[in-house]
């Protein structure tokens, strides 16, 4: 029987388009304004208010974040008596149309509601305390309201007795009696010890988080207030898609995805088809530490979409997760955290994103955080005219137009011309612009005999801004300069602009384009050369494929009467350092004069690997163990990498290692691997999901690539004599 394994490699290039910056913090752990034991947070986006539940001090406090750098208390109320009680308040729900906050008291087994339209919160009414049977609110964590058109229903969740109940609160001044009630403590419709309730906007559906059963249950509230189970819910308590220990849910209306965490297994899981009552798995990612709350940014950052997940464990703060592809979310390597001071990220139970800010609470430290979300790469600005060192010796007033090409992944807002006449930069004029790319122009008239520097600054809608990489100089009524470099531009002609994307295991052609002018004519310009080097190196350093390249004779590709253009091409290897690089160009003329100028670019990180074409295990009888076969892995990127593997027979996730000509299959555990030569019994069985190989590979620093061996053995399952079997293994390069 012939067994052959086909190897597939998965390469990826990573860039971090988002950074999180702590803008401001609010802390109060006693008295009016307290957020001690902060658990739930409800947002009024129109008024820019965060309503925070203080479980420890029984306070409902609203923080005004209209100016994130100047957080303040909008209003606060406390009541631990039976009537209007906020005793043990953990969460609640906010009616932003009628400015009513519904607050559950798990201690007093009742729900109170307050008018929060002004700074003084006014008690309106409450439900009667109920500790058993239909209408029970004993130990409740959360409530939600559902508007069915004619009636507004308050939906409560009695955690202790497993009851979800409805109350007619259309008239907020009248104490309502219980109308409908639902209970189920096991199986597809369980609401056992529920911790979170969420109404899908524009529907009568309520999503329920059920920790004991690791379940999401969907309920429907009728016009008459009756509550019924819809579908069979969703449950998974291990591995990909786990929601083991679920506490909170987050629903994204634009995509209709439900985001759920598993505090026990460390997963973020994304579900769809929620409105059907039987949600299905979209994708999940592991590696989180006690994740609890989720928020999703409505904006993308350079095309990348993010979810944010908080942890209840000190030191694990908030993690960013790339959800651009929701079927395969990826975990950002960085943890947004603070381990010193009085406001560390400890027990972060609530997250919300409003515009370009993430708002979070710390239960343990009674803190509220305003965290700015910013693109980490600035607006791209390329100055066009006048050229650097532009001169004009005509002894009269001069009119000049200053041009720049501007681009940004997010919409642009404005650009400004700045000038420096005497050592200080001054704002000259500003123009409002829009779109993601623009050519902006500024006209200056009546310029007299002077020399000055200039640059252009642009902002986008998220207050990210950028300048052109270098200032330029204008000289008026000065003598002609014999030889001048007008511009140096460096790129690989592959998007994005001003960034170099290396080619895995090969070279990338990078071009430094140089334009020089000579007052004696283009024919007087003799040649040009260029060095391309890492920012920590010098132009004069020797060539090294990791940090330094030289083109001693650039190609002349065109000229005008006074200027000549040179192309200085360089073949840059795949293992060149990532980060800032400089092209430093020198131009010489026939009179022995020279001029030089420099411009910068960025070489992006490249995570990539190459592997053996295939493994032939030869002929093996069923039940026998093959000889060890080698699969060689080569790091063909410029970064340290971890290697992970998964296997399949015909389709990813089929849980087989091979498919055979007699229609039999080889089980996934029959194929094993190791990073050192070992017995079959000591090797690790292949998995149908990505698993770390236990191999970290350094980057190549010379023409000799970094290579590692992996060792593979097969013990086939029973099957027909003479069958041929084939399977697939995917190797993936990942961020360590």
Description:
By secondary structure, the protein is an all-beta fold. The protein has three domains: 2-11 and 607-734, Immunoglobulin-like, CATH 2.60.40; 18-375, YVTN repeat-like/Quinoprotein amine dehydrogenase (Methylamine Dehydrogenase, Chain H, 7 Propeller); 380-603, Immunoglobulin-like. Helices cover 0% and strands 53% of the residues. Strands 1, 50, 52, 53, 54, 57 and 59 form a seven-stranded mixed β-sheet that branches. Strands 32, 34, 35, 37, 38 and 39 form a six-stranded mixed β-sheet that branches. Strands 15, 16, 17, 18 and 19 form a five-stranded antiparallel β-sheet that branches. A hairpin with a 4-residue loop joins strand 47 (579-589) and strand 48 (594-603). 45% of the residues are buried.
Structural key phrases:
single chain; about 725 residues; mainly beta; Immunoglobulin-like; Methylamine Dehydrogenase, Chain H; 7-stranded mixed β-sheet; 6-stranded mixed β-sheet; about 0% helix; flat
Binned strand content = over 45%
- Major sheet details: 7 strands, mixed
CATH superfamily of the largest domain: YVTN repeat-like/Quinoprotein amine dehydrogenase
Number of strands: 59
CATH fold-type name of the largest domain = Methylamine Dehydrogenase, Chain H
Helix/sheet category? mainly beta
Q: Helix count, per DSSP?
A: 0
Mean pLDDT, all residues: 89
What characteristic shape results from the CA principal axes?
Answer: flat
CATH class of the largest domain: Mainly Beta
How far the N terminus sits from the C terminus, by CA atoms, comes to: 39 Å
CATH architecture of the largest domain: 7 Propeller
Low-confidence stretches: 6-16
How many domain modules? 3
Helix content: under 10%
Radius of gyration: 32 Å
């Amino acid at each position: 029987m012939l067994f052959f394994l086909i190897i597939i490699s998965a390469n990826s290039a990573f860039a971090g388009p988002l950074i999180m910056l702590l803008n401001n913090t609010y802390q109060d752990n006693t008295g009016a304004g307290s957020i001690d034991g902060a658990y739930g947070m409800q947002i009024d986006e129109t008024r820019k208010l965060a309503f925070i539940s203080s479980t420890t001090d029984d306070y409902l406090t609203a923080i005004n974040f209209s100016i994130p750098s100047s957080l303040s208390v909008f209003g606060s109320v406390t009541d631990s008596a039976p009537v209007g009680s906020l005793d043990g308040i953990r969460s609640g729900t906010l009616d932003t149309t009628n400015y009513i906050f519904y607050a559950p008291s798990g201690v007093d087994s009742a729900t109170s509601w307050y008018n929060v339209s002004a700074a003084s919160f006014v008690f309106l009414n409450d439900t009667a305390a109920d500790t058993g049977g239909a209408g029970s609110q004993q130990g409740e964590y959360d409530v939600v309201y559902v508007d069915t058109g004619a009636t507004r229903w308050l939906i409560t969740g009695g955690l202790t007795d497993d009851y979800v109940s409805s109350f007619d609160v259309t008239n907020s001044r009248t104490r309502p009696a219980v109308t409908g009630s639902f209970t189920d403590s096991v199986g597809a419709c369980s609401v056992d010890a529920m911790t979170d309730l969420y109404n899908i906007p524009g529907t009568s559906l309520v999503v329920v988080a059920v920790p004991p059963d690791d379940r999401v249950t969907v309920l429907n509230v009728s016009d008459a207030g009756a509550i019924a189970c819809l579908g069979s819910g969703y449950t998974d308590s291990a591995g990909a898609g786990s929601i083991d220990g679920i506490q909170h849910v987050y629903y994204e209306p634009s995509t209709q995805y439900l985001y759920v965490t598993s505090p026990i297994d460390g997963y973020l899981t994304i579900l769809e088809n929620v409105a059907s009552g039987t949600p299905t798995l979209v994708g999940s990612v592991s590696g989180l530490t006690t994740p609890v709350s989720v928020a999703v940014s409505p904006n993308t950052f350079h095309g990348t979409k993010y979810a944010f997940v908080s942890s209840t464990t000190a030191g694990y703060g908030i993690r960013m997760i790339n959800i651009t592809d929701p079927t395969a979310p990826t975990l950002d390597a960085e943890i947004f955290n603070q381990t010193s001071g009085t406001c560390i990220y400890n027990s972060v139970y609530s997250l919300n994103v409003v515009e370009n800010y993430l708002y979070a609470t710390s239960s343990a430290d009674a803190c509220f955080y305003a965290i700015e979300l910013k693109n980490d790469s600035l607006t791209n600005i390329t100055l066009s005219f006048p050229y650097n060192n532009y001169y004009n010796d005509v002894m009269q007033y001069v009119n000049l137009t200053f041009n720049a090409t501007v681009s940004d992944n997010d919409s642009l807002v404005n650009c400004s011309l700045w000038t420096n006449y005497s050592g200080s930069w001054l704002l000259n004029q500003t123009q409002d612009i829009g779109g993601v790319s623009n050519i902006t122009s500024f006209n200056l008239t009546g310029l007299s005999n002077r020399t000055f520097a200039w640059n252009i600054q642009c902002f986008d809608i998220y207050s990210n801004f950028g300048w052109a990489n270098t200032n330029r100089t204008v000289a008026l009524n000065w003598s002609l300069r014999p030889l001048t470099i007008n511009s140096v531009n460096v790129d690989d002609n592959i998007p994005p602009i001003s960034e170099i994307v290396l080619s895995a295991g090969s070279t990338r052609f990078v071009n430094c384009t140089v334009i020089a002018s000579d007052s004696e004519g283009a024919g007087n310009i003799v040649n040009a050369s260029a060095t391309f080097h890492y920012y920590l190196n010098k132009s004069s350093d020797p060539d090294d494929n990791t940090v330094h390249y030289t083109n001693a004779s650039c190609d002349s590709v065109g000229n005008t009467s006074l200027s000549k253009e040179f192309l200085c091409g360089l073949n840059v290897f795949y293992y060149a350092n990532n980060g800032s690089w400089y092209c430093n160009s020198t131009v010489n003329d026939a009179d022995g004069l020279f001029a030089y100028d420099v411009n910068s670019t960025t070489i992006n990180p490249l995570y990539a690997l190459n592997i053996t074409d295939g493994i032939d295990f030869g002929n093996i009888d069923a039940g026998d163990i093959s000889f060890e076969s080698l699969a060689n892995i080569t790091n063909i990127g410029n970064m340290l990498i971890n290697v992970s593997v998964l296997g399949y027979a015909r389709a990813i996730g089929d849980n087989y290692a091979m498919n055979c000509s007699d229609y039999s299959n080889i089980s996934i555990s029959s194929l094993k691997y190791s990073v050192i030569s070992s017995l079959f019994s000591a090797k690790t069985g292949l998995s149908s999901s990505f698993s770390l190989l236990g191999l970290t590979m350094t980057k190549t620093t010379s023409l000799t690539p970094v290579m590692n061996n992996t060792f593979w053995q097969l013990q086939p399952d029973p099957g027909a004599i003479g069958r041929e079997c084939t399977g697939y293994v995917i190797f993936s390069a990942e961020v360590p």
